[in-house]
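ingest -> fold -> write
write: protein_1
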Amino acid sequence: MIARVIPSTGESIPVIGLGTSGPFEVGADAAARAPLREVIDAFFEGGGRLIDTSPMYSTAEGVLGELLSQAQQKSCFMATKVWADGAAAGISQMNDSARLLKHRPLDLIQVHNLRDLDAQLRTLHAMKAEGQVRYVGITHYTVSAHAELARVIERGKLDFVQLNYSALTRDAESRLLPLAADRGVAVIVNRAFEDGRVFARLRGVPVPDWAADFEATSWAQVLLKFVIAHPAVTCVIPATGKVKNLRDNLAGGRGRLPDAAALRNIAAAVGA
């Protein structure tokens, strides 16, 4: 799989990660968790590494902690978030996340949707200095938050920013992605499929012949390669609870990427 470098350290990670919002929010029932274990196994077998989760995603952290094998924990780049008000509540929540995920130190903690940003960033920078977390980041999932994400990046001392970007929603191209590249901030992309909305637009539409030019055989691969083709993007995190979809997504991180003409074709195909 294609890998990209985290600018602040030079560490590299594969471009296709795994999101957990939705599919990993299940109970303790073994039948509900069994397909997720298959997804996790296929993810690591296929060269994946970064898994993104959050205490906001109900049971997802605990499910991951129970399903990941010891070997998978060692190879996993575990990214979670803090979503709390006040320093004390944030510290308590992050400790709970590490316990549930069974992963210490956590690789990346992100301030989820910029909630109580200044207080949580102060805590995170102190934790990083003490070796309790390896990287610090911020997240949001809406275009309306891009200006605030940019302001935080400009203030400095961030390793990661997570943002929404897709062939259908390209607002991040104008300022946020170039700014992240200029300031040496790694980028995780969410909502590459627009929560499935883009597939509704493409229902019944065959994958165009020109997709073969960049080795894409499905619309999921086309859409993921659109995102990865931007040089500022470090990793994209589609969520799935199905092995078939997971393997399809991972294939989007291999082979050639779209050139400028192909990117225009993809945007036109989805009606951007």
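write: protein_2
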Amino acid sequence: MSIAVVDYGAGNLASVVNALERVGAGARVTREPEVIRRSQGVIVPGVGAAADTMAHLGSLGLIPTLVEAIRSGKPYLGICMGMQVLLSLSYEGGEHRCLDVVPGVVRRLPGGQPIPHMGWNAVRQVREHPLFRGIPDGADFYFVHSYYPDPSDRDWIAGETDYGVRFASVVARGNVMGTQFHPEKSGRWGLQLLANFVQLVRAAGHRQPTEAPA
């Protein structure tokens, strides 16, 4: 089993790969579309700004590859910026189109508390999901962000967190999943979440088509 960790210039690739290795998963850091197509699962980690992220993905020719992977049913996990670019638009530094997989927008956290939101915070499980298997409701995860995803369809929201506003900290529907926090930096429960994603990849592996549906 192989999981492609997409390299578009984000800085936290090594910690993601190390965490995957700790839960027994093989991971390959790549920016090659063909490697992503052959993988059984995809993780898009990230820090930085939405406009830069979309520009880098575009310059590497990875936008159609990621959309193809999602449409094919391949399990996808977006982490932090990798989650935010799933939405339709980001208002970080203007208005920027994103992948438009999850309907909704990315907004700036409200004032009244330190920005960026940096540190541990609880995730309330809005509904059951395999990503949460073995993780207690209200478990703490590690966040570093100034913007948050605001899906227009609440059916996408699997977990929420309060920080000046209650926001979607986990989105999930079908094979598409995302976390605003960094599971690779979140200790025991972060490793459990990644292990749960790996199990989803293994379960889906035998069903993955070799090419996206026409």
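write: annotation protein_2
Residues 187-205 form the longest helix (19 residues).
The helical segments are 13-22, 33-38, 50-59, 63-71, 81-84, 187-205.
pipeline exit 0
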